[in-house]
Amino acid sequence: MNVAPAGPWALRVVGLGKWFGPGCDACLAETGPEAGRSTCPRCGTVVACAGVSFDLRPGGVLGIVGESGSGKTTVLRCLNGDLTPSEGIALLGSVGGGERDIFTVSSQERRQIRNFHLGMVYQSAREGLNLRISAGGNIAERLLAAEWREVAAIRRRALTLLERMEVPRSRMDQPPATFSGGMQQRVQIAKAIANGPSVVLLDEMTSGLDVSVQAGVLDLIQEIQRAERMAMLVVSHDLGVVRLLCERTIVMKNGRIVEAGLTDQILEDPQHPYTQLLVSSINA
Amino acid sequence: MDLRTLASLGSGTGYNFGFLDELSKKAVRRALLKAIAIPGYQVPFGSRELPIARGWGTGGLQITLSLVGQGDVVKVIDQGADESVNAVNLRRLIERTSPGVGLTTFTREATIIQTRHRIPETPLQAHQILVFQVPLPEPLRVVEPREEETRRMHAEADYSRMWVALYEDLVRHGRITRAAGYPVLVNGRHVMSPSPIPRWDVPRLHQAEFLSLFGAGREKRVYAVPPWTDVEPLAFTDHPFTVERFDEPCARCGSRTSYLTVIPDERSTRVVCSDTEYCDEHLALQEASR
Ligand SMILES: Nc1ncnc2c1ncn2[C@@H]1O[C@H](COP(=O)(O)OP(=O)(O)OP(=O)(O)O)[C@@H](O)[C@H]1O
Ligand SMILES: [Mg+2]
Ligand SMILES: [Zn+2]
Q1: Which of A92, B25, B89, B204 is the most exposed place for a label (fewest CB within 10 A)?
Q2: Is A144 on the interface with B (CB under 8 A)?
């Protein structure tokens, strides 16, 4: 695979593929948007994503949209290191001068990359937070992973982040199990960005929330993204979220990218029939 | 074969020197060499049956029996005491199964010291080996019950959850309450349980002159701290690690520099050295100089 040297991107992904199952010669041809399925009919392997390539510029916000099961979460999990990809390369501008494939480093270095350069907000707060330890403790975990060792500094940082996320100061030493869904999600965001990662991965961060709460969380995300100049990869099946946050968008179906470009252009003039269907469904 | 023949075969009095057969000892020593090569890393080993119950120091005993040879002198202590039932039993077993091996209560005389929950007060030297009996070898068990997951955490040096547990303890109680078995980072790489020694003893493992070996019989693990290795208690820069403080000297020998323990007396309680041999020696010195 031909990968250009470090360029104006925070994250470059080339040919990312992940499948669940043994795989066979027919897997790639028998799955995808044309075939209309993600499961290989011959061997039963799920091709969760394949041939996924994109660049995310520093400080940029890139959306990934697509129906349920299209592979969005799989892409994020591979990037964060929760899953081991089946193929592909991923480069971070902030790691090894942008020339180090983070998929092939040792598990110890992978952990370091995740601790220092990435942040992830999971679809469910239960996955991103330990609900039984305090909100401050959850944020501390990220900072401790990034080798912060001064409690006073950790608490100052946690407090600043929680206040920015509009979580009351008094909640800092309480476990998020007692918080509302919206507040849990805001704690999760605070945790993900705590150590100043260069790339933040956000998976359906507002999907479990009331519409009234959603807007507030989106505003905060936007504000913090602008203030900290972090690059973000925003997964959503809600085109409204993507329209608000993302300058560029990727549309996925059955594990493949079917369309990519400026969000405005995609929404105004979708090229792929699937995207046209998606767009018409929200404009209706 | 009838039952009588079987019984007579099984009850043969001909123990091998050191009770364990030579192949078993070799397997233990091989595991120990690996443990020494990767300080603080838990090495699985095929824990053998011994004529004492698991949980009574079989891990430490297997290490001692695998190492001991003619000319060695062994000391066994339990929480610092040479005369506790557990220490006496282990010493007797070593004595009976390893003819020619010396036994002592004097720390200075010993070449191998098997211990439960203490490090002798008298500083150990390079030719001495300290063998710890370990009930629970996995320091991450308090934050993660799954063995798979703790193994992954060690492999990736992913210790943030351990740190968070200390942070939460500190926030909740104003200090880190963890007392015995305080977690340490060994050689800058592996988090290790020093076995349930008091905090007092933890700094004495750092850059120590002697070799420390740890054996967990029930959990089938050995690990090691080679001489001159960094052993750092997990602590925060603004809340450094501290050891126990005693307001009074030892009520028996008057020592102000040893780790003390409370023993219930007939009328009141007395606070005395936990290391009985050290206390005796210190007392004798006091009396001699009087
Ligand atoms: N561990 C797994 N084992 C087998 N198949 C899996 C596994 N994880 C995901 N898949 C499959 O991979 C495909 C992509 O899943 P993924 O979760 O990435 O989709 P998604 O786009 O995030 O969907 P949603 O919008 O519902 O969150 C789906 O068909 C899913 O069933
Ligand atoms: Mg998903
Ligand atoms: Zn004393």
Answers
A1: B89
A2: yes
A78 touches chain B (CB under 8 A): no
In order along its 290 residues, chain B shows pLDDT tens digits of 688 776 666 655 577 899 999 999 999 999 999 999 999 999 999 988 888 887 789 999 999 999 999 999 999 999 999 999 999 999 999 999 999 999 999 999 999 999 999 999 999 999 999 999 999 999 999 999 999 999 999 999 999 999 999 999 999 999 999 989 999 999 999 999 999 999 999 999 999 999 999 999 999 999 999 999 999 999 999 999 999 999 999 999 999 999 999 987 777 788 999 999 999 999 999 888 87
What pairing do the DSSP bridges indicate for beta strands B221-225 and A118-121?
A: unpaired
| Residues paired with A256 in a beta bridge | A253
B46 classed as catalytic: no
For chain A, give every domain's residue range.
130-196
ipTM of the complex: 0.89
* Beta bridge partner(s), residue B78: B81, B116
Run of H or E residues at A117: helix A107-117
